[in-house]
Design a protein that fits this description.
A hairpin with a 5-residue loop joins strand 12 and strand 13. The chain is globular. Helix 2 packs antiparallel against helix 6. The strands form two sheets. Strands 1-2-4-5-6-3-10-13-12-11-8-7 form a twelve-stranded antiparallel sheet. Strands 9-14 form a two-stranded parallel ribbon. It is α+β, with helices and mostly antiparallel strands. 19% of the residues lie in helices and 35% in strands.
Length: 313
């Protein structure tokens, strides 16, 4: 398969090897560690496969514990914590080579009618995605061309990503930057009609750019990287049904960074401004060194699943 969206659907199609045990592929990539969004998405697939389809997931809470090894399958063990009248709870442990690398707790709920409903209005100053360049094209425009390895990664990217604000490249441009970022996203091709696939695909995408908001006041998102980043934990609340192959706006902000950790919050809207998903993530930030990374959490999505930043040599 050459379509990146088809490859993403295939990546999320886990093999069931026991009643509550699933196995997921981990593609052999040039990255040092497995992309955290992949593990989160696959873990949610495993949980969702043990729940009735009329109970979609409404929240998940996850911790990245160890780096995943590219090319090595990941086993997902599902614990059926609770099957209640309204809610279902699942706990998933991701294991690779006998070690736990990730765990996730997800809650599923049958939507109820006749309750309270409201939504704070979204920001309205976002341009339409069709008026914005793809991130790879914006980088090519600045650099003239992408290095061959980065060009290959861009072609494999399952999501079309378009930054609302032009990328900043110089210290002078960073002086006016605050800790906010926003991107439009959608899968680069159809993802089918299974709601679980769309939910897990968006979970995959949610780890790709969220920590941008932490970095923006400090360094350019693309270019020489000054910090090694890793996702520590990840939480999501799913408010409305959606399709991940239709445009959604990921509005991101970082209220604080301190002590080597940065917190980021994201709100995901559709084109009509309806809030679909809320996301919170904390990331670890350490000055980048050329030495091999020590064992630690999964890598953050920024710079790993899109065209990556260039580490200092």
């Amino acid at each position: 398969m050459t379509n990146p969206a088809e490859r993403l659907v295939d990546l999320l199609d886990l093999e069931q090897i026991e009643v509550n045990i699933f196995r997921g592929r981990s593609p052999q990539e040039s990255l040092q560690r497995v992309f955290g969004g992949q593990v989160a998405g696959q873990a949610l697939v495993a949980a969702g496969r043990t729940v009735e389809s009329d109970r979609p997931v409404h929240s998940l809470h996850a911790y990245f514990l160890r780096p995943g090894i590219p090319g090595v399958p990941i086993v997902y063990q599902v614990e059926r914590v609770r099957d209640g009248r309204s809610f279902t709870t699942r706990r998933v442990t991701a294991v690779q080579q006998g070690r736990t690398i990730f765990n996730l707790t997800a809650s599923f709920h049958h939507p109820e009618e006749g309750s309270i409903e409201h939504q704070l209005p979204p920001r309205l100053d976002f341009p339409h995605p069709d008026t914005l360049p793809k991130v790879a094209d914006e980088i090519r425009e600045h650099l003239g061309a992408l290095p061959e390895a980065l060009e290959r990664m861009a072609r494999r990217q399952p999501f079309d990503i378009r930054y609302v604000d032009r990328l900043r490249w110089t210290p002078e441009e960073l002086k006016t930057a605050d800790s906010r970022s926003a991107v439009w996203m959608r899968a680069v091709g159809p993802l089918g009609d299974d709601p679980l696939v769309h939910t897990c695909a968006l979970t995959y995408a949610s780890d790709m750019t969220l920590l941008d908001a932490v970095r923006i006041p400090v360094e350019p998102l693309w270019g020489v990287r000054g910090f090694d980043m890793a996702s520590l934990d990840h939480a999501m609340w799913f408010h409305r049904p959606f399709r991940a192959d239709e445009w959604f706006l990921y509005d991101q902000e970082s209220p604080i960074a301190h002590g080597g950790r940065g917190l980021a919050r994201g709100r995901i809207y559709d084109l009509e401004g309806r809030l679909l998903v809320s996301v919170v993530q904390e990331g670890l930030f350490r000055p980048y060194t050329a030495s091999a990374p020590e064992p630690g959490p999964e890598p953050a999505g920024t710079g790993t699943s899109t065209v990556p930043s260039t580490p200092k040599s």
